[in-house]
Design goal:
- The structure is a single chain.
- This protein is of the alpha+beta class.
- It has two domains: 145 residues, no CATH class; 339 residues, 3-Layer(aba) Sandwich (Beta-lactamase).
- 34% of the residues lie in helices and 15% in strands.
- The protein is built from 15 helices and 17 strands.
- The chain has a seven-stranded antiparallel β-sheet with strand order 4-3-2-12-11-10-9, sandwiched between helices. Strands 1-14-15 form a three-stranded mixed β-sheet.
- A hairpin with a 3-residue loop joins strand 14 and strand 15.
- Helix 1 packs antiparallel against helix 10, helix 2 runs parallel beside helix 6 and helix 2 packs across helix 7.
- The protein is globular and about 70 Å long.
Length: 512
């Protein structure tokens, strides 16, 4: 028995440059600010180094009502980690460091470190970069700091790197290095200290000379100068429904703890060259081998300094920051908020933004029939919000189109909405292996009528709209046993507004 057919919508996002569909991604952020869930943000999306979208919204300082700007300095927190790893890889390129070297080769204080049972294990540089070192998650002297418990205090910001690392060396290993993954801020402090020992420079000075300046990241800081105090965003958190201040920059405070695990201040436009270094892999700052090494999954899943997920390399920061890039599409996204929520609403927002950006650059899918979310048939979009979100159409205009089609043909049809210029109708096959000629003729007539309607109102030229429509009709009608007549005949039919002449069933004429 054949299933009853009905008008329905599914969406397939076109590639081109993704600008049109980026609206959905940025709407997520703007809605969050408008609802009071987020004080503000800076967000950027680029492809092949070309910035496609760069926006801000809201305030960086609630008390002073200072607006976010595209160069507001944000504490990027753990997004500093791949920068630290990259700096260490420049030493690997210079053959002054090797990934399999033991930490104790450079830091003798680790020679006596053991686990709770007294068992000693050497830790390698590779294990520091891939969160498999077994070191404690946080330095013992870090008394506070989001997301551990409360505001960053002056005591922590004025710690000395060598002293912090000494306390890490005196702590117990939590597991045998290399045997499991446990995210460790301590590991990056140790790596930063090794950079100091080998280079003879402070960690911050070496990173600046070896990575930041060669990439043109001259407005990225470990300790912003007092003259830039007004540009530094305040970091807020929400705990039990109450807002608290995690960090407010004090120009009078001399920050000595440059924190290799998360001490950088920057903004999205500054960070684009760093992401692009890994996409281009042209050997200008890091060797091709070093880049490939950092983006190669380690036995436990991480890269070196980078998280590798769903074909992306990415990192987040505990201050509400996110940066990622897709080597396949060469798209990068950067979202800097300065806000955290104990209920993780901010984390979900960052994830939703990343997915929305990624979906905007997915290649168009040819007629998927039935859609993947259905079980043997089309999914009907009943609610206006679904029509807007999934199909990307105005529900009122869609209803008008539906009524026009039903009046003109007196049939129910399934519709496949293709963004960027045209609508094509398909008949639902249901459980039948055959499609009768009467139904094909009816579908063909409605398809051509829809082509006419879209071609006459498309933003592009009429010729381009017709080309898109004809191309789409050919693909979809062929799957139903209908074939397109010569393009000349179809163009003539369109020009004469006689849609029934566009298509014919294989082996017979259309009718009805």
């Amino acid at each position: 028995m054949r299933k009853q057919t009905f008008l329905t919508l599914t969406a397939a996002v076109s590639l081109v440059h993704g600008q049109d569909t980026l609206d959905r991604a940025f709407k997520l952020l703007n809605d969050a600010v408008d609802r009071g869930e987020l004080p503000g943000y800076i967000a950027l999306v680029a492809r092949d180094g070309e910035i496609l979208r760069h926006e801000t919204r809201g305030v960086s300082d609630i008390e002073a009502q200072e607006p976010f700007t595209t160069n507001t300095l944000c504490w990027i927190a753990s997004i500093t980690k791949p920068v630290t790893a990259a700096a260490a890889m420049t030493l690997v390129d210079a053959k002054k460091l090797a990934l399999e070297d033991a930490v104790e080769k450079y830091l003798p204080e680790f020679r006596e470190q053991s686990d709770e049972a007294g068992q000693r294990y050497p830790i390698t540089i590779r294990q520091l970069m891939s969160h498999t070192s077994g070191l404690v998650p946080n330095p013992p002297t870090r008394r506070s700091g989001w997301p551990i418990g409360g505001p960053l205090d002056d005591f922590w910001l004025q710690q000395n790197l060598a002293e912090v690392v000494d306390t890490i060396a005196r702590s117990r290993l939590r597991f045998a290095p290399g045997s499991k993954v446990e995210y460790s801020n301590s590991a990056l402090f140790v790596l930063g200290r090794i950079i100091e020992v080998i280079s003879g420079k402070s960690y911050a000075d070496y990173v600046k000379a070896a990575v930041l300046e060669p990439l043109g990241m001259t407005d990225t800081w470990y300790a912003p100068p007092s003259s830039e105090a007004k540009r530094v965003a305040v970091i807020y958190a929400r705990r039990d429904g109450n807002r608290e201040t995690i960090f407010r920059f004090k120009p009078s405070l001399r920050i000595t703890n440059t924190a290799p695990d998360g001490g950088l201040f920057s903004y999205p436009a500054q960070f684009v060259p760093f992401l692009r270094m890994f996409l281009d892999n042209d050997g200008t700052v890091l060797s091709k081998r070093a880049v490939n090494e950092m983006l190669t999954p380690q036995p436990q899943g991480w890269g070196l300094g980078w998280s590798l997920k769903d074909g992306l390399f990415l990192h987040e920061g505990s201050s509400g920051t996110l940066a990622w890039a897709d080597p396949k599409t060469r798209v990068m996204g950067i979202l800097f908020t300065q806000f955290r929520d104990r209920q993780d609403t901010d984390a979900r927002l960052r994830e939703q933004f990343r997915e929305a950006v990624r979906n905007a650059f997915q290649p168009p899918r040819e007629a998927y029939f039935p859609p993947p979310e259905s079980q043997g048939g089309w999914r009907k979009l009943d609610r206006p919000d679904e029509v807007r979100r999934i199909a990307g159409m105005d529900p009122e205009k869609l209803q008008a189109l539906k009524e026009w089609l039903l009046q003109s043909d007196n049939r129910d049809f399934a519709a496949d909405v293709i963004r960027h210029g045209y609508i094509v109708l398909e008949v639902e096959r249901g459980n039948s292996a055959k499609t009768d000629s009467r139904r094909v003729a009816s579908v063909s007539k409605a398809v051509c009528a829809t082509v006419l309607a879209i071609a006459s109102t498309a933003k592009s030229t009429r010729v381009d709209a017709e080309e898109n429509a004809i191309r789409g009709c050919r693909v979809r009608l062929h799957s139903m046993g209908a074939i397109l007549r010569t393009e000349w005949e179809c163009r003539r039919a369109i020009s004469r507004e006689s849609p029934t002449a566009c298509f014919t069933k294989a082996g017979g004429a259309t009718g009805r």
